[in-house]
């Protein structure tokens, strides 16, 4: 009796392709599963915090809901991935969730401030608030038009002063500066970066008091000068870093064609770095637009409209928020509502400026291609 074995039949091409396809797709979560798990986690924690807020008659804690939501997401994605995809992929998803958790923790203050300002500012953020001043208003009503105009005028004047000075200083440090003068300018720029804002206000107040001989001078251009003291080092530092990122090969190619240095800077270096420079300028504006102390000292505050930077007191949004909250009248809630609406307006202005900066940077950035 002989034992014979039948050799296995070779797999066909279709069977091999099917096996490969199954090995690649088996044990994987659907593409949008992490997103659905994240949204579900936020929904669960938001519902829990909403129930707690309703039971205790306290405001909804958006920061807590977001934090515990991202933590719940990390736990769920690890457990589900371990069951479906195995230990190795589960570890990868867990590390990704931990990175997302760290990022969310860093954003929690911003999320909390934005949510609180939005909730408290929207009830008073209306046409009346944006179209009226506080002249002869001691109770409900009134608006912040005079503060909005003052903020735009003073910040615009500070930008006009700071951008040419800061940009030209950065060009000198990168393209021309050397030796002790360059080191001295760099040192003073670093020192100016850490100057407290109230010191800038005191400098502007003392300077204009000495120049005009008026010890009680208050006007808008003084506030612009104070803000420019704070803006210039930010513009210098950001512009300097962007100019340094321009490859030297571009400069050398321009010099090889016989183009003078000043024209190379104007036609090659600046257009190449314009996107980063504009972003830095917008960051500098966002840095100073919310300053209160220097403007309270040199620009003062008023309840009336003032379009003249060189005459009389001028109100700004940060000072408006401060005065509304600090000097409450008989109708306390009306003052608090105006303060929150002013804070919301200031945040929206900063957000709008950043959007404009993104658009400008995208339009003027050098186009790359093959």
From TrEMBL:
<comment type="similarity">
    <text>Belongs to the binding-protein-dependent transport system permease family. CysTW subfamily.</text>
</comment>
<dbReference type="Pfam" id="PF00528">
    <property type="entry name" value="BPD_transp_1"/>
</dbReference>
<comment type="function">
    <text>Part of the binding-protein-dependent transport system for phosphate; probably responsible for the translocation of the substrate across the membrane.</text>
</comment>
<feature type="transmembrane region" description="Helical">
    <location>
        <begin position="185"/>
        <end position="211"/>
    </location>
</feature>
<feature type="transmembrane region" description="Helical">
    <location>
        <begin position="93"/>
        <end position="115"/>
    </location>
</feature>
<feature type="transmembrane region" description="Helical">
    <location>
        <begin position="217"/>
        <end position="236"/>
    </location>
</feature>
<dbReference type="InterPro" id="IPR000515">
    <property type="entry name" value="MetI-like"/>
</dbReference>
<dbReference type="GO" id="GO:0005315">
    <property type="term" value="F:phosphate transmembrane transporter activity"/>
</dbReference>
<feature type="domain" description="ABC transmembrane type-1">
    <location>
        <begin position="148"/>
        <end position="357"/>
    </location>
</feature>
<dbReference type="GO" id="GO:0035435">
    <property type="term" value="P:phosphate ion transmembrane transport"/>
</dbReference>
<keyword id="KW-1133">Transmembrane helix</keyword>
<feature type="transmembrane region" description="Helical">
    <location>
        <begin position="32"/>
        <end position="56"/>
    </location>
</feature>
<dbReference type="InterPro" id="IPR051408">
    <property type="entry name" value="Phosphate_transprt_permease"/>
</dbReference>
<keyword id="KW-0812">Transmembrane</keyword>
<dbReference type="GO" id="GO:0005886">
    <property type="term" value="C:plasma membrane"/>
</dbReference>
<dbReference type="InterPro" id="IPR005672">
    <property type="entry name" value="Phosphate_PstA"/>
</dbReference>
<feature type="transmembrane region" description="Helical">
    <location>
        <begin position="339"/>
        <end position="361"/>
    </location>
</feature>
<keyword id="KW-0592">Phosphate transport</keyword>
<feature type="transmembrane region" description="Helical">
    <location>
        <begin position="62"/>
        <end position="81"/>
    </location>
</feature>
<dbReference type="InterPro" id="IPR035906">
    <property type="entry name" value="MetI-like_sf"/>
</dbReference>
<keyword id="KW-1003">Cell membrane</keyword>
<feature type="transmembrane region" description="Helical">
    <location>
        <begin position="144"/>
        <end position="173"/>
    </location>
</feature>
<protein>
    <recommendedName>
        <fullName>Phosphate transport system permease protein PstA</fullName>
    </recommendedName>
</protein>
<keyword id="KW-0813">Transport</keyword>
<keyword id="KW-0472">Membrane</keyword>
<feature type="transmembrane region" description="Helical">
    <location>
        <begin position="268"/>
        <end position="289"/>
    </location>
</feature>
